[in-house]
Request: fold
Amino acid sequence: MTRATAGPEIERLIQLLARLPGLGPRSARRAALALVKKKELLLEPLADAMAAAVEHVGTCSVCGNIDTTDPCTVCTDPTRDGSVIVVVEDVSDLWALERAGAIRARYHVLGGTLNPLDGIGPDDLSIEPLVARCAAGGVAEVILAVNATVDGQTTAHVVTDRLSHLPVRVSRLAHGVPVGGELDYLDEGTLAAAIRARTPF
Amino acid sequence: MTGAAAIAFPRLGRLTLADFRSYAALDLSLSAPLVALAGENGAGKTNILEALSLFTPGRGLRRAELAEMARIGGEGGFAVAIALSEEGAPLRLGTGLEPRPGEPAVRRSRIDGVPVGSPAAFAEHVRLVWLTPAMDGLFAGSAGERRRFLDRMVLGIDARHGARVNAFERALRGRNRLLAEPAPDRAWLDGIEAEIAPLAVAVAAARRATVDRLARVIAAHRDDASAFPWAGVVLEGTIEEMLTTLPEVEAETRYRALLREGRGRDAAAGRALAGPQASDLLVWHGPKDVPAERASTGEQKALLIGLVLAHARLVAEASGIAPFVLLDEIAAHLDPRRRAALYTALSGLGSQVFMTGADPALFADLPAGSETFLVAPGAVRPL
Reply:
C-alpha cells in the first residue's frame, strides 16, 4: 500500500527502532531521520556503543542484574551492606530503587512474577538462587520490593515461604498513602491497607 | 445522601453520527424529555440507542466490539457526538473509533473538544440506564446474567468496581489453573488465596451496598397498585452472608480459610464453588410475593421495567445526575393500560428517555411535549 521512501538500510533501521518501548512507527521514523542526519555526531557513536554493549553486556550470575561485568557493579561494590538483599521483579525496578538512593544494599532480581495463567511457576523465577544466597550465610534481612499487584504479592508470599526455614528477617515495602497523596482520592483498598500498616509516629 | 440532594437533569439537544452502523451521516436535533423512535425492523432505531450507550464505560448496549459499529463500506472508523444542555451551559461530548493505516484503530473521546483518556470521563456529565429485549430472560436465565446486570448497576455508583471484578476473576482463574495441576505448590496457593480474599470481599461488599441502596429506593417509591410491581431484591452468596454479621477484615480471614479447606472440592469441580463468582441476585414479585422467575412473561416484563425505573432513580440519587434511559422495543409487549402507565411513570422520572418501537401508533399516547421521530434506513425525520 505505502511505497518505500528510503533504501532498505534505512527502512530496516526504522523497523528495528519501532520495536523499542515508547516508540511507534511515526516516532521511529523521526528518530531514524535524526540519526541519519547526524551521522558522525550520533549514528556512528551509537553504533559503536551498541557494538560494545553487545560484546560485554550480560546477566550477573549472583543477583540477575544486567551489567558489563560478572558479578555486576552492585554485587562487587564494597561500600554496600551485604547483609541486606532487596528482592525485585525486574532490572528496571532495581534501577528505580537505585535512582531513589534510599538504600545501599545488594539486590536479587527474580525475573518476573508467578502467574499460573501464563504458566510461570517458581522454577521459572530466580527463587532457588535467592534461597541459596541466604543459606550461604551473612544475610540478615530480605526486603521484598515487588509490585503491589496480585501477581507481585502472590510471588512475595511464595518467596517468604521458601525462606521460612532460614534465620533471615523477611520484610516487604509499606502499602498505603503515597507521599503527597490526599486521603480523599484514595480507594478503599489502599486506605484499609494504610490503616493496617500504620506505624508509630 | 438523600433525595434532597441537588440532581442535574442533562438534556440531549443534538446527536450527530458519522459512519456509525447503518448511518453514513446523521444530524438530529431534539429537545423533548420523552423521545420516541418509530420505524420498521432494521431501519436503525436501536443503532441510535447504541450510539448513546457509548457514553458510559464498558461495552455498549449490544455488548458489541467497537470495530463492529463502523459502517460497512466506510473507512473502518466512526464518530458519535452529542450536545448536552445542563443548567443552560451547553457541552459537547464525542467518542469514536479512528482508523489508522497499518495500525489498529484507536478509540478517541473528547469533552468540549478536549481529548480525554477514556470514556470513563463522561460519567461526570452523563449517566445511562437501559433495557433491551435481550434482558427479557433476566429472571429465568443464568445467575451470571443477573450478576452482570448487577455489576453494571454497581459500576454506575462506584467506578472502580469494574477493575476490582476483573482482578478478582483473573486471580481466581489462576487458582483454578494451579488446582488443575497434579501436585499444586501449596505456598503458591496460600499466596494466591491471600490475594483473592480481600478482592472477593471488596467485590461482595460493593454489590451488597448497591443492592441495599436499590432496595431503599424501591421501598421509597413502593406502590402496590402500580402497573409496574415493586421488586424485592436480595443478594445471595457466601461472603454476602458473612458480611451481614462480620466486619470485612473478619470476612476476609473466613473466606481465605474456606478457600484453603475447599481446595480438594474445587479441584474436583474445576472451579471455586464458594465466593462472589457464584453469587446471585434474587428478585421476587413484591405484591404477589413469588420469585420473579415464577411470574408470567408479562409480569416479568413489568417487573423488569419497575426495576429499571428504580435503577434510574438510584443512579440519580447516587451520582447527582439523572440518567438517560434507553428503552429498546419497549412498548410492543405492553397492553394499552400498562403503556399509558409507563409514559406517566417516565414523565415523573425527570430523566430524558429514548424509546424505540416498530409502530408510530404505539407512541400516540405520549404526553404533550414529547417528540416522535420516524426512522427509515439512513435517515430520521420528525413525525
